[in-house]
Amino acid sequence: MELRDVSRLLYQIKLADQRVATAFETETGFSLTRYEMLMVVGEKGVCSQSEIKDAMKIDNAAVTRHLKILEDKGYVLRERNTANHREVFVRLTDDAAHALQTCERNHDTSSHVMSVLSDDEMAQLSVLLKKLNQV
Amino acid sequence: MELRDVSRLLYQIKLADQRVATAFETETGFSLTRYEMLMVVGEKGVCSQSEIKDAMKIDNAAVTRHLKILEDKGYVLRERNTANHREVFVRLTDDAAHALQTCERNHDTSSHVMSVLSDDEMAQLSVLLKKLNQV
DNA sequence: TGCTATCATTTGACAAGTCAACGATTGATT
DNA sequence: AATCAATCGTTGACTTGTCAAATGATAGCA
Q1: How far is the CA of B85 from the C1' of D24 (A)?
Q2: Closest nt by CA–C1' to B25
Q3: Cβ contacts of A1 on chain B, cutoff 8 Å
Q4: Extents of the domains making up chain A
Q5: C6 C1': nearest CA residue
Q6: Which residues, 6+ apart, have CB-to-CB distance to B61 below 8 Å?
Q7: Between chains, do A10 and B19 touch, taking CB under 8 Å as contact?
Q8: Which CATH code fits B3-109?
Q9: What is the mean pLDDT of chain A?
């Protein structure tokens, strides 16, 4: 594998990422990162920002800024952990839960971003990406 | 395929992109995008910025800015097309050719960014990404 | 010739990520 | 109890991408 081929492949990943992220946003109305963040928070119920950071493998600073946006939109509540004032606890608002349900309901399983790939291919892709992302 | 699963997969792509791009940069000393840009220019010999934009599927503005940086580093020469002053012609300097050769030579085929994947898997990945990027 | 449309590049404003430095809290050590 | 170190979150500076408006150049046409 020549370096040239490596760069071509990596550049393809970059392009795919860009395409797919903007497609997700136009289809759902949610930024991919913030959707994922809402999901993480929703699944945890209540959590600190560090937990989000670890779950999403994203920078602290990015977490803070996205949560600020989500808070402004009324999708998320934040309050200091009274037992440890360093931490901030985050959880979804009812608004968020509602908006996400609506979004999921409107989501057409057959014609979304990834519809160029079969279920099999998506599974394949997922495996490959997991390998790539494991340290 | 639930929306949740889609977002998980797309987010994996994002993470892979980030990992892989920074790894490429630390391994080679070149930003992935600018390496790819140098390759494109090198392969074309001389070309306009629009050609680069089309080849790389990147925004005009990004091309201009990357070329500015590459010019400052002495990797690229730009001059207006005398036959059509709207266009700028771009080509590599000898410095760039030399630096790229050195980089390629130093590149260890066995232990680079993608070494977690077999050649087969990389080929698979390439096919999947091509599908995702086609449209 | 002069208008107008189009084309190529540049610039400005924004989004989303990184890293590094900072402030506030907490916990540990002496 | 006082200090010192570690942890959590925030902020600022920077990178790299986008889109949209501005600039400059050319081409077609009345």
Answers
A1: 9
A2: D15
A3: 109, 112, 114, 119, 122
A4: 3-109
A5: B86
A6: none
A7: no
A8: 1.10.10.10
A9: 95
pLDDT in tens, B47-65: 999 999 999 999 999 999 9
- The spacing between the Cα labelled CA in B49 and the C1' in C7, in angstroms, equals 12
**Does position B15 have pLDDT exceeding 70, yes or no?**
yes
Q: What is the predicted pLDDT for the residue at B128? A: 96
Query: Which nucleotide lies nearest residue B63, CA to C1'?
Result: C9
Distance from CA of A36 to the nearest CA of B (A): 7
Per-residue model confidence (pLDDT) at position A135: 67
